[in-house]
Amino acid sequence: MSYGRFLLKRGLQGVVVVWGVVSIVFVLRFITPGNAVDAVAPLDASPELRERIAAELGLDQPLYVQYLDYLWELLNGDMGYSYISGIEASQMVFSKLPATIELAVASSIIAIGLSIPLGVISATRRHEPADYAATTFSLVGISTPNFWLGIMLILLLSVQFGIFPTSGRAFGFIEAFRIAANQGVGAGVDAFYQWLRFITLPAVTLGTYFTALITRLTRSGMLEELGQSYVRATRAKGLPESLIRYKHALRNTLIPVITVLGLQLGTLIGGAVITESVFSWPGLGTTLINAINTRDWPILQATLVVIGTGFVIVNLVVDAVYAYLDPQVVAE
Fold this sequence. Notes:
Layout: H1 3-31, H2 36-40, H3 47-56, H4 63-75, H5 89-124, H6 129-143, H7 146-160, H8 173-183, H9 185-226, H10 229-236, H11 241-270, H12 273-279, H13 284-294, H14 297-325, H15 328-331
Helix pairs in contact: 1-14, 5-6, 5-9, 5-11, 5-14, 6-9, 7-9, 7-12, 8-9, 9-11, 11-14, 12-13, 13-14
Main location: membrane
InterPro entries: BPD_transp_1_N (IPR045621), MetI-like (IPR000515), MetI-like_sf (IPR035906)
Protein name: Dipeptide transporter permease DppB
């Protein structure tokens, strides 16, 4: 199979998955307790008023008609309007998406910067104190709930020492860059400093589990590669140990690590709900919680569809990169 056909196959599979996500999200609207009319109608609304509201929302139509209308509207970029604020669902969701992506990327950078060196050190110093420390760190990181870690970081570093803000987001990375471009270096440095202060604790909280997972994966991959025959052959040739570790062994170890990195990035985009809630981060997670609390189904559906689509896109990119790095994947 050629590389192009491989990408086309994966793309078609991605379209099917997105359609499945859209269908499931649509069905959830009708199997969950409560009624969308209840979120719009006053408490003392008459039956006539409730019927008129249902007709305006299209809820008086048969289920299959509502489903086909929903698919058609999605294909035309229309995700409906918020029951509460009247704002377009697409406008509200996509305005929150940059904050979630920013948090996911920041937590990924922290995780990669810590986990790969820790994994290499743990593998090359096996059964030494450095190995035990890295292993313990990864075990604690995987076992620690994100919400508890976030609360502890707030109590210690924000409330007790006042180093970081307790919650919120002053502005995003793009806004900080614009400030630097429009107001000069001094204002830009201050803007990036403020951006770092707000994003550090949420990123550390979200990236801790990710860091521990990649550390363990890198360690096991390095141990496996260091025991291969080609490593012994390169050592017999007299190559420096650092070259053997980082150019040969680590390079081969990174192939499965890249796959997990991509998959986890998609998970971070969709799984930042608790972290965003703890830190009042204005992203998709907070939007999703608010929509659930107010039964704002257009916002809820739009958020879930965007998260699901983003996860599929990330997986497609990972498949493309993995197939490029390992041509055997395409051959299979």
